[in-house]
């Protein structure tokens, strides 16, 4: 529950941390170019979100976007930003869903703090160049708004940060959805066969195999006869 | 420290006193052999025989190394020696002020500050290439000549100081406020320590504020080790963002991610200087015609933006000035009843009904099973 403690307001948000890989090691001219490029990417991707649901934050080696009440929007933003990596922006992206809190005295020093941001920054640290990793909390938040989407997220491993805190991380795999759909289709067919087969088995058990087969054959004959006369009637009605 | 002016030190004839420092007195002296006026830096040697031997060895090693440095941005050491209780270094005599005095006089123009730092970085690069680390880069050790040339003084002398402070790991040599975190910790230092110190000097020139200043040495040491700097552009809006990046890289706490080479730092500073000069040219052109006004959002001090690896749960990330996040911040600050409920709601586990109604795979399985079960029952009961 969002609450106001000591005059500060906390809430849960999906934090997308866009980290420029090896930023500190690059020459300043390149740093300036990359920073401008990142700002352009954030401008384009964040424009898809409602202004009242996104807060853009500065980081020394990237940027973070806290998205309120829209984990799917956060994932879309991250994926779109990552696609900009092909244009020469070496991004690693980490997403977490966690607590954020307004901080600052309101004199031009406003910002956000909280575990939501700290974990997102750690996750981005673990992601390699042009890679996106998400935390379990964000996976759960995604599953909450669209059950089933979590199947896209495959385990990437368990990572331990500098503070010896372990993070179970996932990476998106869009083909996983198709594989899961196929698995469920196969399972449905198997279930259907099993259930109908169970019905047949029960019937055989009550009236015996011979009688069941006779009745089935008779029913088949009747049905075939009915079908045949119906087809003949239909053919007779057609004038060539 | 010598109380009265000696007539001679070694072969040098003392002409007058130039200044006094922590180590000894600096004299204006004449070298009769070459008929050359020099600055003679004297260092009072320890009374303790054991300490003196060690001191003596170190002094000659360092002075020899420093004597090999001939560079436009390093004060040349001509000679060194020892007489009675004094060790001395004969150095190039320069006319000008040191940077400390210049900073005290008033703020430096940004281009001038960058120019000085770039010259010092060049000098450091030259010395580092020859395996000499200064260990005490600070405004007091940078000499400014009347035509804008900067020269590094006291190469190799930092190790001779007696006013060093002690940490749990050993004696630390240098001036705490300009020291690198590894130097403050008493760990072994290399050339990257000088780069950090130059970063602090540049920061001071750009902002006019003492970075890592504290009430006492432990406080300063703590600040050097743990406190991240506020980007200079937030204190002085005229500082270009490119310079923020250069300063940030020089001031990295971890030497591995700092500039690895003073020349690299110098190259970046030259790029910044070129940008500043081009700005000045544009401004001059504009002054004769249309005027360009710099729109500055706010000059208030804003919090720093730390790198991903140093962000903790209590670390605050500042709002980006490039994007308007006012609506969302307002939404967070003044939550209505609905937002209070929604923004704080933790994700709930997906239950059976939600799974079956919203997830296509399980829904297909559920419906197929339902129909197949009905068919099975119909077959069974007939």
Provide an overview of this structure.
- The complex is a heterodimer of chains A (240) and B (382).
- Chain A is α+β, with helices and mostly antiparallel strands and 240 residues long.
- In chain A, strands 1, 2, 3, 4, 5, 6, 7, 8 and 9 form a nine-stranded mixed sheet that branches.
- Helix content of chain A is 48%, strand content 27%.
- Chain A has helices at residues 28-46, 71-83, 115-126, 136-145, 175-207, 209-237, and strands at residues 3-5, 8-20, 54-59, 62-67, 91-103, 111-113, 131-135, 153-160, 166-172.
- In chain A, helix 1 packs across helix 2.
- Chain A is elongated, with a radius of gyration of 29 Å.
- In chain A, a hairpin with a 2-residue loop joins strand 1 (3-5) and strand 2.
- Chain A folds into two domains: 3-173, 2-Layer Sandwich (Alpha-Beta Plaits); 179-237, no CATH class.
- The termini of chain A are far apart.
- Residues 1-7 of chain A have low confidence and may be disordered.
- Chain B has 382 residues and is of the alpha+beta class.
- Chain B has three domains: 1-93, 2-Layer Sandwich (Phosphorylase Kinase, domain 1), CATH 3.30.200; 95-287, Orthogonal Bundle (Transferase(Phosphotransferase), domain 1); 352-381, no CATH class.
- Chain B has 13 helices and twelve strands.
- Chain B has helices spanning 49-67, 99-105, 110-129, 181-184, 191-207, 217-226, 232-235, 241-250, 262-288, 326-333, 337-343, 352-358, 360-381, and strands at residues 8-9, 12-20, 25-31, 36-44, 77-83, 86-92, 97-98, 142-144, 150-152, 165-167, 170-172, 317-318.
- In chain B, helix 3 packs antiparallel against helix 9, helix 5 (191-207) packs antiparallel against helix 8 and helix 12 crosses helix 13.
- The radius of gyration of chain B is 31 Å and the shape is elongated.
- The termini of chain B are far apart.
- Residues 161-169 and 292-303 of chain B have low confidence and may be disordered.
- Chains A and B meet through strand 2, helix 1, strand 3, strand 4 and strand 5 of A and helix 8, helix 9, strand 12, helix 10 and helix 11 of B.
């Amino acid at each position: 529950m969002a609450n106001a403690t000591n005059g500060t307001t906390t809430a849960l948000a999906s934090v997308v941390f866009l980290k420029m890989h090896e930023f500190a090691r690059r020459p300043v001219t390149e740093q300036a170019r990359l920073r401008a490029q990142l700002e352009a990417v954030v401008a384009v991707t964040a424009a898809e979100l409602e202004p009242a649901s996104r807060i853009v934050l500065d980081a020394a080696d990237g940027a973070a976007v806290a998205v309120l009440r829209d984990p799917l929007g956060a994932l879309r933003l991250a994926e779109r930003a990552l696609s900009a990596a092909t244009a020469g922006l070496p991004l690693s992206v980490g997403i977490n869903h966690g607590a954020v809190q307004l901080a600052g005295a309101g004199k031009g020093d406003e910002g956000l703090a909280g575990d939501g941001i700290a974990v997102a920054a750690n996750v981005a640290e673990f992601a390699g160049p042009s890679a996106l990793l998400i935390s379990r909390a964000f996976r759960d938040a995604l599953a909450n708004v669209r059950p089933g989407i979590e199947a896209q997220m495959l385990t990437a491993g368990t990572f331990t940060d500098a503070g010896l805190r372990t993070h179970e991380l996932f990476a998106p795999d869009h083909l996983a959805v198709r594989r899961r759909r196929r698995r469920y289709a196969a399972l449905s067919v198997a279930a259907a066969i099993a259930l109908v087969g169970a019905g047949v088995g029960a019937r055989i058990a009550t009236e015996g195999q011979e009688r069941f087969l006779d009745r089935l054959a008779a029913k088949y004959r009747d049905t075939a006869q009915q079908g045949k006369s119906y087809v003949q009637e239909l053919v007779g009605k057609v004038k060539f | 420290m010598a109380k009265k002016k000696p007539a001679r030190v070694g072969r040098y004839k003392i002409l007058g006193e130039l200044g006094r420092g922590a180590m000894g007195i600096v004299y204006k002296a004449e070298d009769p052999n070459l008929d050359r006026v020099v600055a003679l830096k004297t260092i009072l040697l320890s009374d303790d025989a054991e300490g003196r031997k060690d001191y003596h060895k170190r002094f000659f090693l360092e002075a020899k190394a420093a004597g090999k440095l001939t560079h436009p941005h390093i004060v040349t050491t001509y000679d060194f020696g020892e007489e009675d209780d004094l060790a001395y270094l004969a150095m190039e005599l320069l006319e000008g002020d040191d940077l400390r005095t210049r900073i005290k006089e008033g703020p430096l123009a940004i281009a001038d500050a960058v120019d000085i730092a770039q010259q010092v970085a060049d000098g450091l690069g030259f010395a580092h290439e020859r395996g000499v680390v200064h260990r005490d880069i600070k405004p007091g050790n940078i000499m400014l000549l009347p035509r804008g040339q900067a020269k590094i003084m006291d190469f190799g002398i930092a190790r001779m100081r007696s006013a060093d402070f002690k940490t749990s790991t050993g004696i630390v040599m240098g001036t705490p406020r300009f020291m690198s975190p590894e130097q403050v910790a008493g760990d072994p230092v290399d050339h990257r320590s000088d780069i950090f110190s130059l970063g602090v000097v540049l920061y001071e020139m750009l902002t006019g504020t003492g970075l890592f200043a504290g009430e006492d040495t432990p406080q300063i040491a703590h600040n050097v080790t743990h406190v991240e700097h506020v980007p200079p552009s937030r204190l002085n809006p005229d500082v270009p963002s490119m310079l923020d990046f250069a300063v940030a890289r020089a001031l990295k706490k971890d030497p591995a991610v700092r500039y690895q080479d003073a020349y690299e730092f110098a190259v970046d500073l030259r790029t910044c200087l070129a940008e500043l000069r081009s700005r000045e040219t544009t401004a001059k052109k504009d002054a004769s015609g249309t005027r360009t006004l710099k729109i500055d959002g706010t000059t208030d001090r804003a919090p720093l933006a730390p790198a991903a690896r140093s962000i903790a749960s209590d670390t605050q990330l500042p709002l980006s000035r490039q994007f308007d996040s006012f609506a969302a911040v307002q939404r967070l600050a003044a939550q209505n009843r609905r937002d209070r409920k929604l923004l704080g709601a933790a994700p709930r586990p997906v239950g059976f009904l939600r799974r079956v109604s919203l997830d296509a795979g399980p829904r297909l399985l559920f419906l197929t099973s339902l129909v197949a079960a009905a068919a099975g029952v119909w077959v069974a009961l007939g």
